[in-house]
Design a protein that fits this description.
By secondary structure, the chain is an alpha/beta fold. Helices cover about 35% and strands about 20% of the residues. The strands form two sheets. Strands 1-2-4-3-5-6-9-10 form an eight-stranded mixed beta sheet, with helices on both faces. The N and C termini lie far apart (about 35 Å).
Amino acid sequence: MNSQATFSHPAIGLSIDAGGIRTNYHDAGKGYPVVLLHGSGAGITGWENWHDIMPRLAERYRVLVPDIIGFGFTERPEGTQYKLKLWVQHLLDFLDALHVEKAVLIGNSFGGALALALAMRNAHRVERLILMGTPAGDFERRTTDASSWYYEPSLENMTQLLRNFPYDPSVVTEDMVRLRHEVTVKAGGLEAYRKLFPEPGKVGDIKIIKGIPESDLEKIDTPVLVLHGRDDKVVPPECGLRIARSCPNAELHMFGKCGHWVQIEKYEQFLAQTNAFIGDLA
């Protein structure tokens, strides 16, 4: 990874050694620890997914926002084999490095799957879960030329990519496009991202995506709040329903006219749902 000292970007925050991985993260507020976990996609960082949410939650909680290994400005050691077990361990090491024994995990998409996986294996470290656009079970996805795996860095291509996520494409701003594009150029970007996931196939191909099986979800006793956009084209709302049906202590809220970014598209409603679910911890 390029040296962070040679350029600036708002996604670059603090740095800590998490299990031998130099990890980029943001830390705001005081109180019960709440960890915000980003999704996947070209140019993604914890800051990009959560920068508008961080200050609001930091009024009541300690908010921690890491770049999980393989993403953003966190170190990527040569030869790393990226898989769910590694991502779970990195998140545990991050919590250990900050002496956080137990936390609320809030995850968007990939971050939601990571939160579920950690709760499955280390329930004693998770107080509650809030999940948005989170894969669960098997579902179909059609490969498009706007897939992050095939992304070639340019402002035009980043605009096309990001406009696939929300229900209303006007949510995608010029600043959002520019800052995510800069990450793909400055933080190891495209080459690093393609190492994370297998090639999705030719444009138009339908691929079966495998999320956490329902039989495993049934073992998660942690209280779960599932938030899903009814019009999510990336992870279908059926996945939110599966989580809500399978996890014993889950509840679901489905947002109309909302795509994959609940925390951005339904900003105030997301904060209201979140504070109602974890407000007694503040």
